[in-house]
Design a protein that fits this description.
Largest sheet: 5 strands, mixed
Number of strands: 5
Number of helices: 4
CATH class of one domain: Alpha Beta
Helix content: 25-40%
Length: about 150
């Protein structure tokens, strides 16, 4: 009696369904992977001498709606860790002002020894952009922020 197919037959057949028993495990591993590899952006502190103040007010706004503008002694302007020419400040502030639904808060962080003409020029650029809420950051505010962290 001859054997069919050489005597070897498959006892189990391939399933046409996707196994879902480990789907939750895979989703959990992906979640952990993305949490571990995500880099949260933090603004680097510029080396400035902070101006003194008697009192300060806390900015009650989400971090996304705060733009940090640093003015150094030599007139360099940094916006969110990018060196920007003084005449381009309004070009960067205006779109963010509109995008934030007019909720953008600008934290102007100028060195205590910076000539006032640089601060005035930055203020004029911010005014051209249409942003109206500007906070002058001081040493007291910086100390309060560190205490909150």
């Amino acid at each position: 009696m001859p054997l069919k197919g050489g005597g070897l037959e498959r006892k189990s057949k391939a399933s046409d369904q996707i196994p879902s028993s480990s789907l939750a495990d895979i989703a959990f591993l992906l979640l952990i992977f993305f949490m571990v590899t995500t880099v949260f952006r933090t603004e680097a502190d510029r080396p400035i001498e902070w101006p003194e103040a008697e009192a300060t007010q806390q900015i009650d706004e989400t971090r996304d709606n705060i733009m940090y503008i640093w003015v150094e002694r030599n007139g360099d302007v940094w916006i969110n860790d990018r060196l920007v020419p003084m005449e381009n400040v309004s070009e960067l502030v205006a779109p963010r002002w509109v995008e934030s639904g007019r909720r953008l808060r600008i934290s102007l962080r100028a060195d205590a020894e910076v000539p006032y003409r640089f601060v005035d020029a930055v203020q004029r650029e911010i005014q051209q952009a249409g942003a109206i809420y500007v906070v002058f950051a001081t040493d007291l505010e910086r100390r309060m922020m560190r205490e909150r962290r």
